Amino acid sequence: MADVTARGLRFHVQQLGSENTGPTVVFVHGLVMDNLSSFYYTLAAPLARNGIRTILFDLRGHGLSARPETGYTPQDSALDLLAILDELGVEEPVYLLGNSYGGVVAMHAALKAAHRVAGVVLVEAACAGQSGELWVEDIVNTLSVAALGLEFDRTGEQLLKLGQRKVAKLAGNADALLNRTSLIDDLVSGALLSESDLRQVACPVLGVFGAESELAGAAKDLDRLVPGCETHVIPGLGHTVLREATGELIKRVLAWLDAVR
Amino acid sequence: MSESSVLDEVVRLIAEVVGEDVLLGMEITPETTFSDDLGLESIEFVALADRLRERYGAQVDLVAFLGDMDIDEIMAMTVGQLVDHIQSQPAAHG
């Protein structure tokens, strides 16, 4: 029941509060080391308890979903998301909540299928403009260095010998994703939206950022470019808003949903 | 349902999630921890929770149980704590 086949691939999907009659929120997680568990243990259960139907899925190549060699642009992941909703029989417009890179995927989905997306919550995500360009440059550099290290140090094998199963598995998954799929190339070639794309976003958008994060500039870009946008910058926090400001995020999302519905 | 049979059932489901070979030569007791002893990844614990829900029904209400803990507390949990929770739900008996 946790597996959904969409676009010919097996996706790991979890739903909390599937019997709820409130709005549907679909969660989109971040890159490489991230998966749906970062929402499962933070936002999903509290939102489900507030009557919201929550849908969580592992992006292709991540968590317990299949890892094909190609198709890692956010446009592809946006199509994956829409196909999963088709398979689940979700026809009404949904709210998308994306953390970090997941926000980029959510925004692509909102532009690609405006009639299916009622609103977008971006948590620490830069989708366009200078903040987006800096983010892509930074993430591609970080992932490329990590890819080389994983390939040449055989980190996973060494950790396994030391009995570090969990870290070994994480390293093995990261190695496979970075060195044996098109993920890094796909990010270089097609992750970002343009500023004029953002001006076309027709649905309400909520952005939540950490004041100390390198992405704090993205909040200003959203305010400047997206018509129906509300942003909050939380003092003292970096990129880890989801984990460190979970309570505040839940309150903000519930209040925003009440206001825009 | 007796405590040992819930424990047996939880152990069986853990093996389904991580694979039998990982557990070779390891005895899972109520004191075994998910993170340090079993090396369970957080996404694997999601898969385990899913199987427990299928096995014992929504009444076991793992979401509420887990919803009161953060991820570090969940992963530091022992197998026995999870068994006790299942055990304490009347709906899980039988």
Automatic annotation (TrEMBL), chain A:
Pfam families linked: Abhydrolase_1
Taxonomic superkingdom: Bacteria
Domain AB hydrolase-1 span(s) in chain numbering: 23-171
Family matches, as Gene3D superfamilies: alpha/beta hydrolase (3.40.50.1820)
InterPro entries per the UniProt record, alphabetical: AB_hydrolase_1 (IPR000073), AB_hydrolase_fold (IPR029058), Carboxylesterase_BioH (IPR050228)
UniProt-listed PANTHER family: HYDROLASE ALPHA/BETA FOLD FAMILY (PTHR43194), PEROXISOMAL MEMBRANE PROTEIN LPX1 (PTHR43194:SF2)
Entry protein name: Pimeloyl-ACP methyl ester carboxylesterase
Organism this protein belongs to: Kibdelosporangium persicum
From TrEMBL, chain B:
Iron in keyword set: no
Keyword Phosphoprotein tagged: yes
Domain Carrier intervals: 1-90
Pfam families from the UniProt entry: PP-binding
SUPFAM superfamilies tied to this protein: ACP-like (SSF47336)
Domain of life: Bacteria
Gene3D superfamilies: ACP-like
Keyword list, A-Z: Phosphopantetheine, Phosphoprotein
Protein name as catalogued: NADH:flavin oxidoreductase
